[in-house]
């Protein structure tokens, strides 16, 4: 059954209310050792890659990068003692990042017109509000709440990802939507069942419209079925993009955790979310590259001309599977192939660490192999395989921080 906790002990996945208790209980790093998760996070903070600055203000995906990276740092603060494990000031970064994006978030009209990515910033806003009590952060959350009500939806009730692209829904939107819904429903509107219904509906529509025979989900769909690429029956786009599917699967494992702790969904909705997560985990593993243990940019087309192992999506799947194992959502082996869930994810993690992570002369880590932004404007195979790679992209770093933390937690559990 769904377990409920009071708001007094409210803790989201990657978001803690009782900050001093969390900090005091953090795992210490001894003898100058620094886990990879902390090293990766410190590298992004030192380069100021996840802040709104003059250099980043034109980046359309900045709110997603900033919001996701903040979530990854808050995850770290829940597990590690920042004083002994970090070289950068994690709390100072979290405040600086939130303060940098706050003026943009306070523009409700801008939030309505922006990609759904903007809702990822809710975690950082809530963190600062609970820590400081400063009403400006609550005003930011209120602006997002107003924008949520003002977002355009298709005829079935699914959210448009971006008003500039009418009727198009991207899998990418499910992670920001889940993170935002969790905060608003649990902290501010615990009796508002419509929030959970809207989230469940969005997840259902993606499964209904984007489902491939393999069990994987296409990047998105056009509810009007008018786009030249849309399937005339379902509206689906033709290809499975690894990072889009990664957003969906990460969102599901976070939603399950938050529901089991705080009752985001009712039991029927929770059971349906679990079925989605479990079945998709198995189909993701079916599509793994046997040599590397990771996943291709265009899934279902591994090894074909132009395709490549992509970092961000692979890190997302590594995280979502390892977290599912830790929480008991995945146990033992894949029901058909017999592959062990944990070992499968660990293989990809090790490959990424050995092949995509390189330290520089300044002691920071660099991450390669992350694709830039992919949209549904012209979602051909050639489009996905020729989009530029983005060296040191936060969209690769943040999920790799989260995957590293799960890897480290698993290792700590084995040694204790």
Automatic annotation (TrEMBL):
GO terms for biological process: carbohydrate metabolic process. Residues 1-24 form the signal peptide. Pfam families: Glyco_hydro_88. The keyword Signal applies. GO terms for molecular function: hydrolase activity. The keyword Nucleotide-binding does not apply. Keywords: Hydrolase, Signal. PANTHER family: UNSATURATED RHAMNOGALACTURONAN HYDROLASE (EUROFUNG), WALL GLYCOSYL HYDROLASE YTER, PUTATIVE (AFU_ORTHOLOGUE AFUA_2G14630)-RELATED. This is Cell wall glycosyl hydrolase YteR. It comes from Aspergillus saccharolyticus JOP 1030-1.
């Amino acid at each position: 059954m769904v377990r409920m906790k009071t708001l007094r002990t409210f803790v989201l996945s990657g978001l803690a209310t009782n900050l001093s208790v969390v900090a005091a209980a953090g795992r210490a790093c001894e003898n100058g050792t620094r886990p990879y998760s902390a090293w990766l996070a410190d590298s992004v903070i030192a380069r100021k890659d996840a802040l709104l600055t003059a250099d980043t203000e034109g980046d359309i995906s900045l709110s997603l990068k900033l919001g996701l990276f903040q979530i990854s740092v808050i995850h770290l603060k829940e597990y590690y003692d920042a004083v002994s494990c970090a070289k950068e000031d994690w709390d100072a970064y979290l405040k600086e990042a939130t303060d940098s994006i706050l003026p943009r978030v306070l523009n409700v009209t801008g939030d309505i017109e922006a990609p759904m990515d903007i809702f990822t910033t809710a975690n950082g806003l809530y963190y600062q509000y609970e820590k400081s009590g400063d009403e400006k952060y609550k005003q930011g959350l209120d602006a997002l709440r107003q924008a949520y009500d003002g977002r355009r939806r298709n005829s079935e009730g699914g959210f448009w990802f971006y008003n500039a692209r009418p009727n198009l829904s991207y899998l990418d939107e499910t992670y920001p939507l889940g993170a935002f819904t969790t905060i608003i429903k649990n902290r501010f509107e615990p009796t508002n069942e419509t929030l959970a219904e809207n989230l469940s509906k969005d997840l259902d529509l993606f499964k209904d419209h984007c489902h491939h025979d393999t069990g994987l989900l296409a990047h998105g769909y056009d509810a009007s079925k008018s786009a030249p690429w849309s399937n005339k029956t379902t509206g689906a786009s033709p290809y499975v993009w690894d990072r889009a599917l990664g957003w969906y699967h990460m969102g599901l494992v976070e939603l399950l955790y938050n529901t089991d702790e705080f009752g985001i969904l009712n039991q029927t909705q929770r059971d349906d979310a679990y079925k989605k997560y479990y079945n998709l985990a198995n189909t993701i593993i079916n599509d793994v590259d046997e040599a590397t243990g990771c996943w291709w940019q265009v899934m279902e087309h591994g090894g074909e001309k132009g395709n490549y192992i992509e970092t961000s999506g692979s890190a997302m799947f590594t995280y979502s599977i390892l977290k599912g194992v830790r929480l008991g959502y995945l146990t033992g082996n894949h029901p058909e192939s017999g592959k062990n869930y944990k070992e499968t994810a660990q293989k990809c993690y090790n490959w990424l660490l050995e092949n995509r992570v390189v330290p520089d002369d300044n002691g920071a880590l660099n991450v390669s192999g992350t694709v830039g932004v992919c949209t549904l404007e012209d979602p051909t195979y050639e489009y996905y395989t020729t989009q530029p790679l983005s060296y040191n992209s936060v969209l690769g770093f943040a999920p790799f921080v989260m995957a590293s933390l799960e890897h480290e937690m698993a290792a700590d559990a084995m040694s204790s």
